[in-house]
Amino acid sequence: MPAISDPILLESASCLAKKIRKQEITQAFIKRIDKVNPLLNCMVDERFKDALLEAKAADDLIKSRKYTEEQLAEKKPFLGVAISTKDCIKVKGMLNTAGLYSRRNYHASEDADAIALMRNAGAIPFALTNVSEVCMWWESNNLVHGRTNNPYDTSRIAGGSSGGEGCMQAAAASPFGLGSDIGGSIRMSALFNGIFGHKPSQDIVSNEGQFPCAFTEEENSFLSIGPMVRHAEDLKPVLKIIAGKKAKLLNLDKPVDLCSLKYFYQENDGGGRHVSKVDRDIVDGINRVANHLKAKFKRPVEKIQIKEFRYATEMWLASMKNDSGYEHVHLLGNLKAPINPYKEMLKLPFEGEYTLVGLLTAILEKTQCRYGSAKYCELISKRNKLRTDVSNLLGNDGVLIYPTHPTVAPYHMEPIFRPYDFSYAGIVNILGFPVTSVPLGKLGREGLPIGVQIIANCNQDRLCLAVAEELERAFGGWVRPEIIEEV
Which is nearest to 449 in space by CA: 409, 404, 405? Predict the structure, then answer.
């Protein structure tokens, strides 16, 4: 990694917003992208010229003194601050391929709701980041843009489908960004890249303007757009903006008394089938968090074992079934016509337009339980009971510390041999709870970031965010990727 030579790159988006919003800030991040992207392949499209013009307009607005500093902070809290997002969330005029080859030349004609809200708050979209094919895999690799590398070790994955965004943040190439999450995408990518990522409570942030979109109202509740940042203090102000009118449901400005919370922790899922054992570094990290909270706040931190978590994979797969008539073959067909995955598999060595993972997913989908079957009903019932049980456990003043993923960032292609490891994150989506992935400072034995996820009850996002800020103070949060000085 090239050295981080400009101190501007180390600032939080909130700090940048409080300072003079000069064009130099945007230029600094553009220069950083030029240095790191050839190595990492995290950015896939840009609007640098327009972003610089918009930064100048922000400068002019400030200099005009039309508004006081206080008024600007209220009306445009991120005025002039550049923002990146993944290539599945629409930004007007930019690519919106979702990593699908047939969409390689498709450009968005309008902004997604979340991007429009960030623009209204003064943020300037300037770069688009890489994803997995149709955003349904946890390594960001596709036939349109290629593969994204982890900034701590380029032989490792950056995660998916928000891996490009996680990588962009970890490499200090963007002040802050947005990701989306239906099976752990924000949080796994945050863990692997050592940054913060928050999946909001269900139905709080609009998903309008994503491709692929959810097919049913229930599936839409599993999907969420959320902030991905290097500094925990940026989580709350971004969430407040993208939640729009529903932000009032979260009471984000209500203080959180960390001394009065109920704390629970669980080290593993209890033995899920075909799921990796939790790394020792991650277990140690969970225990360090528990010990810190116990010592500082003089509160019991209870070790628990929610046994139903071991069925997370089965419950998630069943929850993705619906009566819309759309399946993975339709997503790969750009929602126009379903593809034949067996026929496309034969083309793979020659002129294939789909990834191996995408085709295998489409084939294996046929082997899973059918919507409405007895097995489906059993798993949905189990999920609903689990939701009630965890909700009762947490109440309005409890948080659960749990692994974001059983391992640190795997090597490229390794996820294909342990595909169900995503279940540690995916289970929270189908339960609908808010959850924050938190890096724990120093790197693990393999030189890679380690972290945990903090889960709270529905609409208690502020508890997750407050604990995340505390853990950043205690353990250091984001760590700069190892630097190889340029000659």
Answer: 409
